[in-house]
Design the sequence.
């Protein structure tokens, strides 16, 4: 009888330890999820509050929030002759500029310079941000290249560019049209915000700076 009781106690203890470990594992998973998801959720809620307030809350400049954020997928573009897919938009916050003409003339060059300046103004946070432009050519004009070091130029066939532009335009159909739009894409590849070029550089900088401060991702 004593041996049987000892066996049952040992089995009970083992089960208790197993349940404790499972509970501990669940807590760790929730903690990891919270570290990544909660800051992004808080940042999204903050931008939503600013948007519905008409910009009066906190007197902040802002872009248009895309709610909910839309995951970009199925990309088939190129960068320097190499494939550029959704992974190219993951891991960092992305300032994505899409000139209407898909060519880089004088206005495009000016907008790219302002985007470069706002990124530099992020100071120690600027390494979390990348600049991407969609063109119908594999690079910006030679005269701009030295001033645009680090800029990622993506292109593709007419069909590839049209498919990608469709992903950008679909989530913003309910918004007023914007010429030469600038988008913010989060480090998970989600389309989050849209700006007009007249909001460069200060308004875009303010929103992006607050977003980087509120989030640990990227």
Sequence:
């Amino acid at each position: 009888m004593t041996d049987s009781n000892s066996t049952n106690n040992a089995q009970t203890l083992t089960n208790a330890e197993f349940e404790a470990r499972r509970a501990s594992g669940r807590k760790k998973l929730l903690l990891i999820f919270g570290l990544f998801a909660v800051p992004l959720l808080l940042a999204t809620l903050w931008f939503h509050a600013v948007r519905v307030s008409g910009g009066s809350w906190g007197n902040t400049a802002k872009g248009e929030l895309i709610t909910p954020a839309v995951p970009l997928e199925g990309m088939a573009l190129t960068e320097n002759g190499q494939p550029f897919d959704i992974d190219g938009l993951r891991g960092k916050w992305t300032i994505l500029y899409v000139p209407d003409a898909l060519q880089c003339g004088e206005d495009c060059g000016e907008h790219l310079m302002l985007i470069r300046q706002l990124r530099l103004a992020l100071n120690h946070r600027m390494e979390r941000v990348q600049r991407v432009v969609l063109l119908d050519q594999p690079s910006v004009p030679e005269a701009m290249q030295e001033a645009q070091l680090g800029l990622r130029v993506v292109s593709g066939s007419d069909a590839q560019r049209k498919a990608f532009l469709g992903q950008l335009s679909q989530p913003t159909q309910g918004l007023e049209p914007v010429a030469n739009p600038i988008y913010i894409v989060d480090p998970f590849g989600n389309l989050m915000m849209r700006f007009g070029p007249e909001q460069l550089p200060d308004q875009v900088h303010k929103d992006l700076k607050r977003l980087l401060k509120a989030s640990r991702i990227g």
Q: What stands out?
A: Residues 49-59 have pLDDT under 50 and may be disordered. Helices lie at 2-52, 106-120, 142-145, 158-169, 202-214. The chain has one domain: 60-214. The chain is about 45% helix and 15% strand.
